[in-house]
Design goal:
Length: 36
């Protein structure tokens, strides 16, 4: 792997991590609403 490809992969990894975190937050909120 070249250094350039590694640098280009970082934004995608960060976006994926943010999307996963948002998904967990949404599911937690939905579960909290259903439990109430």
């Amino acid at each position: 792997m070249s250094k350039r490809s590694g640098k280009h992969a970082w934004p995608a990894v960060l976006i994926a991590a943010i999307n996963i975190a948002d998904g967990f937050l949404v599911t937690n909120m939905m579960l909290g609403m259903f439990r109430k």
